[in-house]
Design brief:
By secondary structure, the chain is of the alpha+beta class. It contains two helices and ten strands, in the order ααββββββββββ. The chain has helices at residues 2-29, 88-99, and strands at residues 108-115, 118-128, 131-141, 145-156, 165-179, 188-204, 211-218, 221-232, 236-247, 250-258. The longest helix has 28 residues, at 2-29. The N and C termini lie far apart (139 Å).
Length: 259
C-alpha cells in the first residue's frame, strides 16, 4: 500500500506538471502580438521638444517647394521675385505691342509701280490691322488701250493681322481711257468716273516693316462719254457724244518701303 500510494502521488505530480505546462503554452498562443508603431506619428529628434505634427494637421510639404521654403513656379526663373513676374494680361499686351503692323511699328507704306508699259506710285496708311486706306496715280498701257488714273483706295487683308499676304482692294477716282482698236467710232479718249477693282499679294523683303514687294492685278474701268464724228445728210459732219465704258487690264509689280 505504501508503494502504491507513492506511485499515485508521483503520477498526480506528473499530470499536474503536464497540465500546468500545457495551460501556459496555450495562453502564449492565444495572446495577440503588439500593434505596429503608428507611422503617422513622427519620432522627435534627439534633444527636441514639443509634439511632432500629425498627419491630420494638414501641413504637408509641397513637391514644388525649394529648400528655402519658396514656391517654385514652372516657366519662371527661380531668382525672379514674385512682384516682378509679368501677369498673363501684361504678356499678351506686350506681344500685341511688339507685333504691330507688319511685325513692327510701321504705319505708312509707299511704293513705286512698274507695269508692262506704264508706271505709277502709291501710298498706303494703316487703318486697322486688316484694313488700310491710300491713294495712287498711274499710267498703264497695253498698246491698243491705255488708262490714266488718279484714285483713293481701300485695301482689306483677310488672312493677316499685319497688312501682309493676300489682299483685295478697290479704287475710286478720276480716269482717262484711250482706245485704239475696233472701228472708227470706238477710237479716241474719254474721261470720267474711275472704278478699279484689284487683287494683290504683299510680302516683306528681309525684316518686317522695311522693304516689301507687291505683285498686283487690276481692271480699271472708266465711265464717261466718248465723242465721235458722224455725217448728217444735208448738214455734213457733226460731233456726237455717247456714253461708254473704257476698260483696261493691268499687271504690275511694286517695290516699296514701310516706315
Amino acid at each position: 500500500m505504501k508503494l502504491q500510494s507513492g506511485s499515485l502521488i508521483r503520477l498526480i505530480t506528473v499530470l499536474s506538471c503536464l497540465l500546468i505546462g500545457g495551460w501556459g503554452l496555450g495562453a502564449q498562443e492565444g495572446t495577440a502580438p503588439p500593434p505596429p508603431p503608428d507611422k503617422t506619428t513622427a519620432t522627435p529628434p534627439p534633444g527636441g521638444t514639443g509634439t511632432p505634427p500629425s498627419a491630420d494637421s494638414g501641413t504637408q510639404s509641397s513637391p514644388g517647394a525649394t529648400q528655402a521654403g519658396k514656391l517654385r513656379i514652372p516657366g519662371l526663373p527661380q531668382n525672379t521675385p514674385a512682384g516682378n513676374r509679368p501677369s498673363g494680361g501684361n504678356r499678351q499686351a506686350g506681344a500685341a505691342a511688339s507685333s504691330g503692323s507688319g511685325g513692327s511699328s510701321a504705319k505708312n507704306w509707299v511704293a513705286g509701280n512698274v507695269g508692262l508699259l506704264g508706271v505709277g506710285a502709291q501710298y498706303e496708311r494703316v487703318f486697322t490691322p486688316k484694313l488700310s486706306v491710300g491713294a495712287g496715280i498711274y499710267w498703264y498701257s497695253l498698246v491698243l488701250f491705255s488708262t490714266f488714273g488718279l484714285e483713293a483706295n481701300v485695301r482689306y487683308y483677310p488672312f493677316s493681322g499685319r497688312l501682309q499676304g493676300l489682299y483685295g482692294d478697290v479704287g475710286l477716282g478720276f480716269g482717262i481711257a484711250i482706245n485704239a482698236y475696233g472701228d472708227e467710232d470706238s477710237w479716241g479718249s474719254m474721261g470720267g468716273f474711275l472704278l478699279r477693282p484689284g487683287i494683290g499679294w504683299k510680302f516683306d523683303v528681309g525684316k518686317p516693316g522695311g522693304f516689301f514687294i507687291e505683285p498686283h492685278l487690276s481692271i480699271p474701268l472708266v465711265f464717261g462719254t466718248r465723242e465721235k464724228e458722224v455725217y448728217r445728210s444735208g448738214y455734213g459732219y457733226d460731233t456726237e457724244s455717247t456714253a461708254d465704258v473704257g476698260a483696261n487690264f493691268v499687271a504690275r509689280m511694286a517695290l516699296g518701303y514701310a516706315f
